[in-house]
Amino acid sequence: MKASPAVSAVDIWKFYGDYPALRGITFDVEPGACLALLGRNGAGKTTLLKILAGLSTPGKGKARIGGIAPRDSAARRQIGLLGHGIGVYDELSALENLRLFAELYEIADPGRAAEQWLERTGLDRVKHGLVREFSRGMRQRLAIARAFLHEPSVFLLDEPFTALDDRAIALLQDLLREAQSRGRTVVMSTHQLREALELATHVALINRGRLGYFGARNAEMVSDPGFLYRTYGEG
Amino acid sequence: MIRQIFTVMRKDLRSELRSKEAVNASLSFALVILLLFSFAFEPTAEETRQIAGGLLWLVFSFAGALILNRSFARELTNDCLDALIASPLSGASVFLGKALANFVLLVAIELVCLPVFGVFYNIVWYRQIGPLLLVVVLATWAITVIGTMFSALTVNLRLRELMLPTLVYPIMIPALMAAIRLTTDLMQGAPLAGDTMVWLRLLVAFNVIFTALAATLVETVLIG
């Protein structure tokens, strides 16, 4: 029997009022693949990622994570989400934040997992500092630690490189490469074509809610990131 | 699930005790209203005793709205709500954790207000302290359950500070009526027996029904 795709979108439609933000999106992402979700602002990338993460329900169609509906707790354990916001609490310390999420994900030793990720992201020296006192770069690294903390098998990243400082970009790229080498699946929406195409094995281009292109990344896309938009975009 | 409920509760209490945003606003509001009402009524008059329960629960429910408004709104900063509901936590766990945190904060404010109320209004409020505390606990849970649920429902609305009280007070009416009646009787020294038990049963039934309803529906409210 064939294993379920790591991420699956089947004829997903999403309406905001009468406006169809997504129109029949269908694709499968196999385990270990890295899908770069491209498209102009308002194309529907964030909406699609929210549906895949179980934060929004589609008007029609279905999303699956490892063959399971995203709102199923077993699916949510598999997902590492990095959205537009950092998703950590300003009034808690870095350690308290990571401990909190480690406990919510029922990690066996939440304290140890939190300490390990603080060390990994270079935040161990400020672990007792409140997040509200952190610099932007430190907050971003903490958000990355939060998304990777429970060792998810599927990463859903919404414009992960936007507004990151150099150190955080390098950290995220390293972690994503390592995740890929361990067979983890990545779906990331992005406008940073070069960074994304370096990591991507597959590319999906969304045009006004429709899937304009879905396929393997090729050398032409890397050498000329505008190629996709010229060929499959709206021009 | 129980552990996760308490994890959410601890997180909310810790955040609130560090920022003190809602607690300070709620406590100062409650004390100021108690003080202002004490100028409006003659403290020794029998009428004051007869409306004591009403005064007290009016203050508690308005002060509660200030705490409840922040409950889910606090999650909007840094998109924490997305991180929370993307975790394996069930909607019911999020709701119950938040409701418990709100309950603890509101009960703490009420326990500060009760002696102040006694002094300002010249009322011996502790004659039936055991039954009175039971009423306080039950009615506060009723306020908390309804308020937390509607805090989730209104979290993405621009006018949520206005919408929350508009939506919750009509639904709270049965619980508030019971609390007012019971509190007034208990402060006059009447025991918790006979006719007053009907109001206590109403309060218990209200809590059971709305806690079950809210815990079941909150996932739909949050995800849509």
Explain what you see.
The complex is a heterodimer of chains A (235) and B (224). Chain A is of the alpha/beta class and 235 residues long. Chain A has one domain (7-232): P-loop containing nucleotide triphosphate hydrolases (Rossmann fold). In chain A, 35% of the residues lie in helices and 25% in strands. Chain A has nine helices and nine strands. Chain A has helices at residues 45-52, 73-78, 94-104, 110-120, 136-148, 166-181, 193-199, 219-223, 227-232, and strands spanning 7-16, 19-29, 34-38, 60-65, 79-82, 154-158, 185-189, 202-207, 210-216. In chain A, strands 5-6-7-3-8-9 form a six-stranded mixed sheet, sandwiched between helices. In chain A, helix 3 crosses helix 4, helix 4 (110-120) crosses helix 5 and helix 5 (136-148) runs parallel beside helix 6. Chain A is globular. The radius of gyration of chain B is 18 Å and the shape is globular. The relative contact order of chain B is 0.15. The two termini of chain B are 22 Å apart. In chain B, helix 2 runs antiparallel to helix 4 and helix 4 packs antiparallel against helix 6 (91-121). By secondary structure, chain B is mainly α. Chain B is built from nine helices and no strands. The interface between A and B is medium-sized, with 32 and 26 residues.
Task: Offer a concise description of the structure.
The complex is a heterodimer of chains A (235) and B (224). With 235 residues, chain A is an alpha/beta fold.
Amount of helix of chain B: over 70%
H/E series of chain B: HHHHHHHHH
Greatest interface: A-B, 32 and 26 residues
What percent strand of chain B?
under 5%
- Judging by the overall fold, what is the CATH architecture of chain A? 3-Layer(aba) Sandwich
Question: What percent of the residues of chain A sit in helical stretches (DSSP H or I)?
Answer: 25-40%
- State the domain count of chain B: 1
Mean pLDDT across the residues of chain B is 90
Low-confidence stretches of chain B: none
- Work out the helix count of chain A: 9
Point out poorly predicted stretches of chain A: none
Shape of chain B: globular
Largest β-sheet summary of chain A: 6 strands, mixed
Whole-angstrom Rg of chain A:
18 Å
Distance between the termini of chain A: 42 Å
What's the overall average pLDDT of chain A, rounded? 88
What's the end-to-end separation of chain B, in Å? 22 Å
Shape of chain A: globular
Based on secondary structure, the structural category of chain A is alpha/beta
Question: What profile does the largest beta sheet of chain B have?
Answer: none
